[in-house]
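Hi support team,

I'm opening this ticket because the web form for multi-chain structure prediction keeps timing out on my end. I have pasted the exact lines I submitted so you can reproduce it. The total is 759 residues across two entries, so I didn't expect it to be a heavy job. Is there a limit I'm missing, or should I split the entries? Thanks in advance, R.K.
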Amino acid sequence: MTAAQKLDTFHFPHRHLLTVEDLTAGEIVGLLDMAEDAATVSRQISKKREHLSGRTLVNLFFEASTRTQSSFELAGKRLGADVMNMQVSTSSVNKGETLIDTAVTLNAMRPDILVVRHNQAGAVELLAQKVDCSVVNAGDGQHQHPTQALLDALTIRRNKGRIEGLVVAICGDILHSRVARSNIGLLTRLGAEVRIVAPSTLLPPNADRLGCKVFNHMSDGLAGADIVMMLRLQQERMSGSFLPSTREFYHFFGLDHEKLKWAKPDALIMHPGPMNRGVEISSAVADDPRSVIREQVEMGVAVRMAVLAAVARHLPNR
Amino acid sequence: MNARKTTTIGNSGGRAALINARLLDPASGRDEAGGILIEDGLIADLGPHLRRSAPRDAAVINCEDRLVIPGLVDMQVYTGEPGLEHRETLASASRAAAAGGVTTMIVMPATDPVIDDMALVDFVNRRANDTAIVRVHTMAALTKGLNGTEMSEIGLLKLAGAVAFSNGRQSIASAKVMRRVLAYAKDFDALVVHHTEDDDLAGAGVVNEGEVSARLGLPGIPKAAEIIMIERDIRLAELSGGRYHAAQISCRESLDAIRAAKRRKLPVTCGVSINHLTLNENDIGSYRTFHKMRPPLRSEDDRRSLVEGVADGSIDVIVSSHDPQGTDGKRRPFAEAADGAVGLETLLPAALRLVHSGDVKLVDLFAALTIRPAALLGLPVGKLEKGAPADLAVVDLGAPWMLDRDTLHSKAKNSPFDEAKFQGRVMRTLVAGETVFPFAN
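Hello R.K., no limit was hit. The queue was backed up. Here is the completed structure from your submission:
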């Protein structure tokens, strides 16, 4: 079966992709298989496919993004869609009202797929209720970022050959991270042991109830890990409110080769980007042969192609 | 750890013996006639079998049946070093400590600059190592510059040697900041020591709010200012799981709150200053500024309840709250005068008042002055046990004397016990087996 064929065969039973919690293990594997083929397509000279030919894809970003937006844009274009990027200001006071108004307005333009990022948890789901097209969540507040979790899973599977039974340590600012929440849900569903490692001030309350193990020290959390996934630390968390300083965070949580020794010798190093070198990860580790950070970016396009192709099956005007 | 050099005692090749002693060790409950053999700064052996006999090569100190206790651990000492050396240096404070049987003092971060950086912890520890004659450990700032808003580098400061964290004389007003600090400190098993006074409610107050403040015409500080803060902090300690220590409580209701927290097995402890155990608001008399302190001296009923708290162990620690202030700060109208009292030298004799009055047993008193603070801070001192540092105080329980504040070894003389009569005093103090009091020079 050729790559292009496999992109067609998997039946994805959802119109939207809003959260990984909606996905069964089988559906996740199906998407990953599709994405694997999309990755092959993306490495060919002719990357163009026809799955979204004639379709309109709108990237609706209420929050600034470079890599996610361009990744969706490329994915849409490779599948033949017309892609429009919209940056919407979030400065309006009445966000809820504005959001629904925006949704209704956009809906009238008859797009086929909306890719939405919003700085409020649950906003993408709210918008999905008001439109007729498919909606893909490109990140809602501190809640979900499902395509990031899918691309992380794909990167892991390609390098380790499996996900079940692997020990994945997600480290850093868990509290504010939609990447962490999405990965905890998705990777545990695929049978991985997920650990979160962070100072108590950067952990959500009752973090242990999320289905992962909680650690406050890198030495414990990284012990025997197959995957070390570092999260980006936002600048505004660093100076006294959640953490005392960048240097203290780097000393106790920044991934350097010293701390990496606690993980398995062949542990993969991952980061959703953009990285703060010298804050959550040392430059040497970021550029280590075990680092798959660049492959994550490549798999991002592949996963988004798979997701767009999968949800496109359910468009009402098919 | 501010390790002292191993000292040679006399010409004995590092061995010394205390004989004819009454050994009192609150950590083990030991209270018996005996002796102690010291080798290389540590307690090599102790017990009744050493009461009258010492190895030939050991220098003998005859205690003449006096009390021998572990040296006191005072976890709240303000000095003026760095920044206000005219008030007190680490050296002068350590001499006052030695004269008072205090062998370990914890110095507060409220200096100039504030001790909120690894390099400053290191400075204090090195400076103490060079100039102090007792052990000195640093309590580092809980927030940067004690500003109450940005947490300090608790992990790195602990690595640098800080034994606990405090916001000095100021409370952290923001519950959110306090919660995060406690949560963050928990990860490093760091002890958060908090001055508990709602600054807003305390306002311009300078004495306990009540009859005395009304008669003196001075603005009062209601007890509620302390109780509110302690009850808030207990909730936050429960929420965060961090180890919390109320630096010094001053009234009955605060103690009730602490007792309730302990019954619920929360990681909550508290201290009390010797001033609040032995003095009350009436001692202020006609505006005696040496009795002005934060928290203020409270009523006799509060004092009695605090003494009960020491007797039953619900108050963990007694501190001197040594706070040197010069005459420039104290010779002022009461409301303008500086807060604070020196106390290192009078801590032990003043505390013995509680024993002589029959309110507190000797062993319970010294538990709050030795093993409990040592255990809270994770220090290996405060106990008479083989292998423990030979930090000891020889105490004459009966000796009557009167304090002349000009004889105090502290640079500042602002003692509320000037001309007070005491029964019991420190005859000799040893740190790492070396006699540091009486002074050699």
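A quick check on our side: Confidence is low (pLDDT under 50) at residues 1-13 of chain B. Let us know if the file doesn't open in your viewer.
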